[in-house]
Batch of 4 targets.
Target 1
Amino acid sequence: MVAIIVCSGSIIDYSYHEKYFNIAKSIICVDGGAKHLRNLELVPDVLIGDLDSIQKEDLEYLNSLNVRIIKYPSEKNMTDTEIAVDFAVESGYTEIIIIGGIGSRLDHSLANIFLLKQMLSRGIKGMIVNEHNEIMLVKDRIFVMREEGYKLTLLPLTNVVEGITTKGLYYELNCEDIEMGSSRGVSNEFLDETAEITIKKGLLMVIKSRD
């Protein structure tokens, strides 16, 4: 089951994200992300957060629709997005897609990306998306579908990612190691409709991106 978490970061092209909402079983709104759902004319199943960034008119809109609200204190040990991830996992969702999780605040953007590690360790398939990127993590094997105009980048998140093997990409790797900080895995090309990436040890960030 797929849960969509909508945050308050940048969303430029609302129509682009329709493909994700079409497969969602649940929509979780994080605080100021309510503005995006209102623009999309979508009703979330729940609003989560300390409600410090939501606009008054958006809160009134969700209240008028009797949306469930789970309010947290502003002084807490987790971001609202991490709380939303916990909620989705505890609700039984096996796949989580975060939309609006990337914005002008680099600290919040990175914190949201690193939540993929938490999801992976709990057996959840996670992804952060915007109009130009799909960001995923892998510790064993992942399959990525080709899309026109997109490239694929592999970035180690551990000191070394060992035994990387790729199929369906122009620059193939055959049980090779890449150290963290290396740019070797940046901007590969798809050859087949599906690329397969497997690793033996470590943690690898996989980014499907376009200009």
Note: The radius of gyration is 18 Å.
Target 2
Amino acid sequence: MNIKEKVKEYKKELLLKKVSELFEKEGFDQIKMVDIAKYCGISVGALYKLFPSKEDLFYDYIQYQIDLFYKQLQERFNVVKTPKQRLKLFIDMMFHTFTSKKRLFMDTAAGDPLFFAKLALKRDNPAKKIYKLLEREFEKLENRKISDTKQLAILFKSFLYGYIEYWLIHDQPIKTCSEEALELFLHGIVKE
């Protein structure tokens, strides 16, 4: 990567950090690129040079957030020993992330897990490394009813989205549900 490309990536990272504040405070659906540029203190043209569309900006925002989550997850996984403990840690972190960004996930697009799946069909899936990490943990679990760890990783995240959807709709506490969610999921996939 040459210097010009590095500078562009650095600018994008700075903007994504600032945009994160805006999306998490105001949501995604109603904000226009002109609002984003104004909030970030740059011209609309400069914003479009870095992100050709609002969808591109949102995709990069998702990638940025997943990269941050993944880095924190890896750091914390280093001190947790068993797959079960790591899966619980993943749930804790996922639930915390969603509760800390509630306003954003209340939006029609941002709050729809299928939005990310459909977006990933057009590009590389930004959550691929998260799924790989989960697959490795499921590989370590003994007596699995389902041998396909890729399927388990996707089912696991979808199962957790059910908890998140319930929390969003009914405004119920979710941070305390990690142990329950893990036990329910494992009960369904591990032979007794």
Note: DSSP finds ten helices and no strands in the chain.
Target 3
Amino acid sequence: MASSSTRPVYSSMEEKCTTLGQLNPNSHNWFVKVLVAKKTPIRNTRWGRHMKLVFVDKENGRMQSIIYGQDLEQLDKLLDLYKTYFMGNAKIRQIAANTPILAASEYQMVLNRSTYIKLCSQLEQLPITNIYQLTRFAQCSEFADVASKQINLLCAVIHVFPPRFVQRTRKNLQDFVIVNEEHRPMLLTLWEEFLQNEGPRLSENVHKVPVILGIRLSVNTFYGLSVGTMPNSTFLFDPPIAQATHLKLWIKDNKDYIENVVSRKLYEKSYQSIDQPADSQIRKISQILSVKSFWLKATLKVSEPQHCLYVLACPDCSRTCGAVYGYEFTCLYCGSNFPSPKPLLRFQVDLFDGTGNLPAYLENEEAEILLGSSAEKIIEAKHEEEDLNPCMINEKLKDLQFLFQIRTSRNETRGKTFVRNTIVKCLQHESSSTVHTSKEPSSSAQLDRNLLTDLPMIESQESSSKIEEEQAATNPVQCQTSSTGKRGLDCKEMTTQKSFKHHKED
């Protein structure tokens, strides 16, 4: 009687549960409440047929488990991904050395048909957000170009591009356009093995606008801000979470916006809004180490002497070529034939911040916005002896300060390492005297599109410049026109798009 009076009384199974972090090989008579966060396929190895799972508890503690042989089929059917179970009295053992570990714990459960397993009721289920902390689209730039920083992204897929082969990386990929309630569309890139499973499934159902949860994705800035798969990435289709339900409702109410994202290509770099970085993200040139992406606050000077401000490249693969502008050529990289190479703005600049100087390349849309001109116009002005030279540009930029997002790449050739710094984004700093004021709320100071409009070669485009200035006074971001022929939204369309284009985040 004495022993029964001291026996603990539990009003529910959950009160009896401990946490995964407290389990070890000496634990006995234990119970836990866990969510199945991962299941690997059944594999045949020298240890026989087995399957691994990863469990997560309410405190986000993690532990992997393993099922062998004759217990596989029954337990595989019983344990569903992203469902919550009460479990107890499985064997806990140390994970052998040189064995892949799927969770942080050095121990693993060995499950069999003697293990206590009970599915929790709907009210007792642990939410998936306990496992995966979701990243907002507006936060993606904080994780750009850092492989160790991976994100979990909830989004809707609205458009698919054909699979293609990238000569530079020798890999296959497929791009998809994704959106969410933040009105910041961008690209999702599936690499290699993801083209076989997730690629076809997304392509076949893109007309239904599927909602997916991308887990452990990387963020890069090669062609504007985009996300892509890593070898350890996974996808959950139609995830059972409240955020996904809200996103589906938003999709139904914003069909016009989704159609405009695709038709106007609002996912491209020239339309993307990059927020001004926090002071903690801005580095000094003297403090730059071996990082792949960073922000600088500096002044800019076009390097001298410099042959010209543009290169001639293949219109398909964008590799530079030795062809002559206006004459037919064959690209030796991709093998395509074109009537003429495509001129692209690309020139070297020096950045100064008082602690040192950094050489970098400015190219494509960012160079075009800074100069207020395209490579084609520069070629035309050169033929008319109205060349735009570095001295003229530097005179106009000498008192202006900018925020630069820099991407660093390293290549080894003949045993030597070459470092190339490329300006991914250029924002005019708020303290600069020539920053225009936008009536549209924004968290960053957008770069004035016509900083150099009073230079000789730009004056010849007087009529078009006036139109752009009038549009920019209303909405400078939406009225951009790029060198590739993509047109921004006209004033009539701005009224329609105003409700969803570049919203300021809460």
Note: Confidence is low (pLDDT under 50) at residues 1-7, 433-446, 454-506.
Target 4
Amino acid sequence: MVKQKMTTNPCLDSGPCLIRTDDKRKLPPLSQSDVKPQYVHHLAPKPPPEISHSIPKHKDVKQRCVKFTVAAVISLLLLLLLAGILLAYYFSSPCVHGMQCGDGGCVWESQWCDGVTDCPAGQDEANCVRLHGSTFLLQIYSTQSRNWRTVCSHGWTERQGRASCQNIGYSRGTYFKSGQQKTDSDDGFLLVKSDFNPEASILQQLVLSNTCPNNSAVTLRCTDCGSGVNSSRASGGQLASVGAWPWQVSMQVVGSHHCGGAIISPYWIVTAAHCVARASSPGDWVVYAGIVDPLGTLFNPAYSVSRIIAHEGYNSLTRRNDIALMRLSKPLDITASSNIGPVCLPNVGLNITDHQKGWITQFGEIVNGGSQYLMETQVSLIDTADCNSSIAYNGRISQDMLCARETDAVAYMCLNDSGGPLVSLKDGVWWLLGDNIWGEHCTGQKRPGVYGNVTYFLDWIHHQMRKHQED
């Protein structure tokens, strides 16, 4: 066997090389220092960076900053939008942490009825004193206890009585009297301070008390109203006698009766807004009190009018808020004649129910083309739902209206005199429940008469009286 000679390939494991096989030259012998092992582990060199089209590092940071800025701006805009929505809700909704003035502003609840005017138009001090029920019980709103409290008669004088009536809206000269009534109050009382200051508001002259000596509370009559009528009358329509309805007035334009009205104080007349809509100038009007026929104008003075106030929400189409006030230039002399006197405004808590009996008085013609005479007839209040039925007014009656039907169909009174009073006798006092605004008495269908609901407008009436108290 022929053994082949093993040769070593110098190109193995040593990277690329080029050897010419036909080269016969002998290489010089290698020194010991040049001899290296043929199989040596080499670390592979790092591969060259791959070529990429990515953004350089400084550009990548810049892009991230831009994205962050955009996100921050969008978030800020969303927060501003949310804040705007919350602010809009706050200003368009009732005050969350206070009381609303009525003109968009708010005051703290502790500022309500504290004797200091904080709302621009004084709404915070407007309805803080009231009379309750048929006994005229005096109640004042306490901002500390946040409820209406009865006033204890201990230490009470006529001076405090006048101050309270002025707060309601009556002039100082119309004050009638204070009284006492025994009553229990689970909500506590208000007591007059010992150091009463007549120059300060009555609301600042009272302190809270859980007790009251003998439980004797104050009753208050700001004007001598609601008396002078014989209640045992026939129910049918008939001519009224002089002095029977002392609050009835004839409101005249150019010497002719235009509308009726009711005296509520020596200065103030309640009537319908549609009566004064076309003649809103006070100089166009004169008022006669204590008359029942044309001859009455010859023996009674004509009172001029200084101000006419129609309800700002009056709607001539729907007859909503159809109520108005007239202020006389000088007060009626109610002490000089028993034929003239005010009717009482319905106090809060006066229990008036459906089917309550009442009376209406209106000027009308007995003979066609004849003169105006005051007529009277008895009526009965009817439920609003019945008045809104399809056979009556078919949903046109709102909460600021009352309906009343005449009790005697035989004596049915077909008159069309606006502004005249609807009154009712309760607990010996005559109360003004409504002002005549419209009806369809003369259509042959005998639908009930419709009247403005004076109880609904009570706050509005007192507000106007306070506002123009010194006119």
Note: The domain at 109-221 is CATH 3.10.250.10 (Mac-2 Binding Protein).
